[in-house]
Every structure is written in structure tokens, then in C-alpha cells.
Fold this sequence. Notes:
Blueprint: E1 11-17, E2 34-43, E3 49-57, E4 64-67, E5 69-72, E6 75-81, E7 88-96, H1 98-111, H2 117-133, H3 136-140, E8 148-152, E9 155-159, H4 165-175, H5 180-192
Antiparallel strand pairs: 1-2, 2-6, 3-4, 3-7, 5-6, 8-9
Amino acid sequence: MAMPADGRKRVVIEGVTPEIDGGRFPIKRVTGESVVVEADVFADGHDLLECRLCFRRESDAEWQVAPLAPLGNDRWRGQFTVREIGRYRYTIEGWVSRFATWRADLLKRVVADQDVGVDLLIGADLIDDAASRASAPEAARSDGHAYREVGLGRRVVHAEHAHDGALAVLWIACQRGVQLERLLAVAHREVDG
């Protein structure tokens, strides 16, 4: 999966554990045991980040991925299970999440009863941009993410992140001219849970 280059240049990853002598020697685990990996991942500014743990057996060509969860204070954690005897490699990737940052900022504006019309258009552009980068298999997948295809006259949008369904409804409704009061009511239901 290709990620946009902008944003990744600002992310710093350090303090990766486990490691022995800066990676000079391998860590050891037995089959069935989990490898818990932590790292400090941060960037300048207040943008939100996303991180993932990439791992593979040394003899495998393809990387597998697992999400990293934030622990607080720029520390992130993820894990994978050793399935077979042999050497494994792992690395961490981190990037600025334009969508998560937009979503968090939008929710703050909705709670503050500010005009969010422009913000909704920005969100629509973010989703259009992501859809244009998605390959056909990525756009069709359904493993944990819901992709809903929505026709908006001149554009077809793949709305990712099922848990952000109310936000997708917000900007779709905005594009179709639904009144702001109705949009805010939907957004407040999203914020209140």
C-alpha cells in the first residue's frame, strides 16, 4: 500500500525495543511467543500520527503488518507472534495522518458550534485523494474497514473507516446541500458516542 510522501518526512522513530546493541544481535523468542515492540514516534506540530509494525520471516519476501497503538507521551506498542522457527525481521513505519487530524479538528469545531462547511469540503477532498491512490484490490477489500461507494454526481468516493460513518454522512450531506443544523445534529451524535 503506497502512502503519501508528505508527512512521513516529519516523523521521527527512536527508542525501539526490543533490541540488543542497536540491532547488532538478534533477540530470541520461541515458537508461539509474542514479540512486543515499542518505540517513541513523534513529529513536529500537533498533527495526529499513525504507526504500524512490519514483520516477516527473514526468508519471506512479503512483509506482514500489525497496527501500533499509542501508549501516551509519544510511546507506541504493537506485537506479532512467532509462528515458525527461524529469523524474523521487523521495522516500524509512522506517518502523519491527514484524515485523523482532519477528523479531530472537525469534531472540535462541531462541539464549539462553529461553521464547518469548509472543513467538510476539505474532508471530501481527503477522501477523494485517498480513493484516487487506491488500487482496485485495496478499494474492494473489506478486512476491518468498510468501503462504501457513494455517487456524488461528478465523483465517486470510497469512504474508509467504518467507525467514521457519521463523518462520511456529514460531508456527503454537505455536498448534497443538507442544512447545517441537520449536519450538526448528526455530528453531535458521533461525538457523544
